[in-house]
Design a protein that fits this description.
Elements (H helix, E strand, L loop, with lengths): L7 E4 L5 H12 L3 E6 L2 H11 L6 E5 L5 H15 L4 E4 L5 E2 L7 H26 L5 E6 L12 H20 L5 E8 L6 H4 L1 E2 L8 H10 L5 H11 L3 H13 L4 E4 L1 H12 L8 H11 L12
Parallel strand pairs: 1-2, 1-4, 2-3, 4-6, 5-8, 6-7, 7-9
């Protein structure tokens, strides 16, 4: 893709974190925005921020787990914008629990948002994207679509599946007008841990989170860990910028952050025991990671 100027971008999870900054950075680049989010108050905040840019913005309250709502969304966006050029399937949730203690309802909640929402959106939007001279479908997996820790079985299942699904689409659309991208963020300063559902039956955090908690001396305080996780990750504006740069360069697999790249390398070097290398990554990167927003952008 040569430019974002005058493109129409659909973004799920646009009410906060990476999704909000994707909307802001795309609007700054001249793209028109269809912002989608289940939290209507957060969605309104993002839309208000976008008023600073001379682009058209539409607001779409959306539960990505609702298949009928996803299927209706393309026509709603087209009615307001005329066409669709980019789709960012960015919304995501998690549950902190062992598999045995995880309820079927919580399993379905994560799978319906993280996996089925991506699949249903891809199916709904691809026919419209193929009508454009250049277009892109960007599906967010995770570094946890490459490696695993305990107490995240449902999240891993969804994110590994998003990776496989998206990379299959990459091959199916090779040489066509639609770019396909699988995104693998590392530790980004979002509130996904704070918003996670938690099963307190046994341990209260997975190995990766406990390591972060040990670094901060707050291993037993989940709320403090969530705040530390958000405060000490890469700022989501920088994550969004990395994604957009990679879309312009048509990179099918997008690693966001040095930690994501290094964790992927760890699992290549030690396919079974890669977690033994994690302290070598998390300790220095927690100290060195750029936690400030891109200059000129809001910090929220």
């Amino acid at each position: 893709m040569k430019t974002f100027s005058n493109k129409v971008a659909v973004i799920t999870g646009a009410g906060s974190g990476i999704g909000r900054y994707l909307a802001i950075l795309l609007a700054k680049s001249g793209a028109n925005i269809a912002a989608c989010e289940i939290n209507e108050a957060a969605l309104a905040e993002t839309v208000a921020m976008l008023r600073d840019y001379p682009v058209k913005v539409s607001s779409h309250p959306l539960d990505v787990a609702d298949k009928a709502a996803i299927e209706a969304l393309p026509e709603q966006v087209i009615a307001q914008h005329g066409h669709i050029d980019l789709v960012f399937n960015n919304a995501g949730v998690t549950v902190d629990s062992t598999f045995e203690d995880l309820s079927e309802n919580d399993w379905d909640w994560v799978m319906n948002i993280n996996l089925h929402g991506v699949i249903n959106s891809s199916r709904a939007f691809l026919p419209h994207l193929k009508q454009r001279p250049e277009a892109a479908l960007i599906n967010t997996s995770s570094i946890f679509g490459m490696i695993v820790v305990e107490r995240q079985s449902v999240y891993h299942t969804a994110k590994f599946a998003v990776r496989g699904f998206t990379e299959s689409l990459v091959k199916e659309h090779k040489g066509g007008s639609v770019q396909i991208h699988s995104v693998h963020p590392g530790h980004i300063g979002t509130n996904i841990l704070g918003n996670a559902r938690v099963n307190e039956a046994k341990e209260s955090a997975n190995a990766f989170q406990r390591l972060i908690g040990k670094l901060a001396g707050i291993e037993d305080d989940r709320e403090a860990m969530a705040e530390f996780f958000q405060r000490n990750g890469m700022h989501p504006s920088r994550a969004a910028q990395i994604m957009l740069n990679a879309v312009l360069k048509n990179r099918p697999r997008i690693f966001v952050g040095a930690d994501a790249k290094l964790m992927d390398l760890c699992q290549r070097l030690m396919p079974i025991h890669y977690e033994k290398l994690f302290p070598l990554i998390t300790v220095p990167l927690t100290l060195l990671r750029n936690k400030k927003p891109i200059q000129g952008l809001p910090s929220c």
